């Protein structure tokens, strides 16, 4: 079985008013099905740019990204949108939920344009909420009536509702206190036990330590890759210089 994620010699260069900004340098990484991997690094290290590429929200300037064996570079915009909708679940620090809608309606929202009948959408949403660990008596609550931890569980359920190959979580505990954050992390562990693949972006080493494997990005380079217990030594990975890259124009972006 191929890795869920297989990125090879990824570079990302942005063209800015100040010149060319080389954000990612020669990044190679694989993530197997059912793995829980944390990508960590300081602010400005390139980890969010890497997540955007993994989530098919951005494309690399050079290198190859295979998602479940599918070469992402060969997809057009419509096909990329379909991959994002069906194969990738996103969980964000800010939840991105609609406050005036109920919990159940928020989770069903990604299914509205899939052609499923309402009953089937509701069935899938209930299943996703159960996986995320939210009690049944909260399903008809409005989002504004929930705690931060409960809202993040709803966001996790929404990410699960299309049965994605991978869950990408960007600082999912950043707006939560330590105890609530730990409860959310337990939800990720429970999902991993069902076979889900999880990639979590964080600047917090304590959060990263919850994963099976930690990947550290510094200055756009893969600096360290090892198990969460530190049993594998860190290595700095050198990349090609900017002059080695193909002359590809890239539109600007942010870290």
TrEMBL record:
Q: Where, by residue number, does the polypeptide cross the bilayer? A: none
Ranges for domain ABC transporter come to 5-244
Give the top-rank taxon of the lineage listed in the UniProt record for this protein: Bacteria
Spans annotated as Disordered? 228-255
The record, for InterPro entries, names: AAA+_ATPase (IPR003593), ABC_transporter-like_ATP-bd (IPR003439), ABC_transporter-like_CS (IPR017871), ABC_transpr_LolD-like (IPR015854), MacB-like_ATP-bd (IPR017911), P-loop_NTPase (IPR027417)
Pfam families the record matches: ABC_tran (PF00005)
Give the GO molecular function terms: ATP binding
Q: Tell me which UniProt keywords the record has, alphabetically.
A: ATP-binding, Nucleotide-binding, Transport
Decide whether keyword Transport is in the record: yes
Q: Where is the composition biased (Basic and acidic residues)?
A: 246-255
Q: Which PANTHER family match?
A: ABC TRANSPORTER ABCH.1 (PTHR24220:SF86), IMPORT ATP-BINDING PROTEIN (PTHR24220)
Query: How is this protein named in the record?
Result: ABC transporter ATP-binding protein
Q: Which source organism does the UniProt entry give?
A: Collinsella ureilytica
């Amino acid at each position: 079985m191929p890795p869920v994620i297989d990125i090879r010699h990824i570079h990302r260069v942005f063209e800015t008013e100040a010149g060319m900004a080389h954000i990612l340098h020669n990044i190679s990484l694989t993530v197997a099905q059912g793995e829980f991997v944390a990508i960590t690094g300081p602010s400005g290290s390139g980890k969010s740019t890497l997540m955007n590429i993994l989530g098919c929200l951005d494309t690399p300037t050079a290198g190859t990204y295979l998602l479940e064996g599918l070469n992402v570079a060969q997809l057009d915009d419509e096909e990329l949108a379909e991959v994002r909708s069906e194969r990738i679940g996103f969980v964000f620090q800010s939840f991105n939920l609609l406050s005036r809608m109920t919990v159940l309606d928020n989770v069903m929202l990604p299914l509205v344009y899939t052609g499923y009948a309402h009953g089937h959408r509701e069935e899938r949403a209930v299943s996703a909420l159960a996986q995320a660990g939210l009690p049944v008596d909260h399903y008809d609550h409005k989002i504004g009536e929930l705690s931060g931890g409960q809202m993040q569980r709803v966001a996790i359920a929404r990410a699960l509702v299309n049965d994605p190959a991978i869950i990408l979580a960007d600082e999912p505990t950043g707006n939560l206190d330590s105890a609530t954050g730990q409860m959310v992390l337990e939800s990720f562990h429970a999902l991993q036990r069902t076979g889900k693949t999880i990639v979590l972006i964080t600047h917090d080493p304590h959060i990263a330590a919850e994963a099976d494997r930690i990947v550290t990005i510094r200055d756009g380079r893969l600096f360290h890759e090892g198990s969460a217990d530190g049993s594998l030594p860190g290595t700095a990975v050198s990349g090609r210089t900017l002059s080695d890259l193909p002359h590809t124009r890239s539109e600007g972006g942010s870290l």
